[in-house]
Amino acid sequence: MTAMNEQVQRTMENLRKHRYDVLYVETKEEVVPVVRDMIPEGALVGSGGSLSLTECGVMDLLRSGKYSYLDRFGKDISPEEREDIGHKAHSAEFFLCSSNAVTEDGCLYNVDGNSNRITSIVYGPKKVIMVVSVNKIVETIEDAIYRVKSYVAPKNCARAGMKTYCATEGICMALKLKEKPGLTEGCDSPGRSCCNHLVSTHQRVPDRITVILVDEPLGI
């Protein structure tokens, strides 16, 4: 067993101070057993689009037939059906996703285009489970903003085939204009993915959100 580094320990302590439930695993293979123990069979479950969930096997678990999974990503799902499923996920018992960044002082930072993910994080599902690799831990919210503009948004937009500045240039246009752009600065593209910004701090409902920190790289 490897020793947990000080940054991860500090982040976990501060997340708990903000009333998040926090778990730590060393490898992605440990994630599925943890999630399986948390979700009873037959539960109504929704999820965000997440490479982290795919890479650690959680998406396969959700589609295993053990749960009533609201799957927005099926091959034959129409845009209208996908939107309807997204709305239904707000009434799910469990919602699974990742986070774009976690700050050392215990905040979660997430940016969405359609925003079904961040709305479910904020309100609706009884329980939110986030699978987050420790490489997404940053020192401050400013660092989290930079991480999204310099890395997350360009990668996600390129992966989704979006015709945005960041998808073609590999960096948010706001970073071309200034070293430290504001939270909402960016392009005016119709396909922009940075439409709504969520900073989650101290939680009114303790342990509603569980953050599973994974000590190896996952997702973007």
Task: Report on the architecture of this protein.
The chain has 220 residues and is of the alpha/beta class. It has a domain at 6-104 and 116-136 and 198-214: Rossmann fold, CATH 3.40.50. It is built from 9 helices and 10 strands. The protein has helices at residues 6-17, 31-38, 51-55, 58-62, 79-88, 116-122, 141-159, 165-169, 173-177; strands at residues 21-25, 44-47, 68-69, 94-97, 101-103, 108-112, 127-133, 137-138, 196-200, 209-214. It has a 6-stranded parallel sheet with strand order 1-10-7-4-2-3, covered by helices on one side. The two termini are 26 Å apart. The relative contact order is 0.21. The model has no long low-confidence stretch (mean pLDDT 95).
Sheet with the most strands, sense and barrel status:
6 strands, parallel
Count of alpha/pi helices:
9
Determine the strand fraction and express it as a percent band: 15-25%
Tell how many strands the DSSP assignment holds.
Answer: 10
CATH architecture of one domain: 3-Layer(aba) Sandwich
Alpha carbon gyration radius: 17 Å
> Could you give the distance between the termini?
26 Å
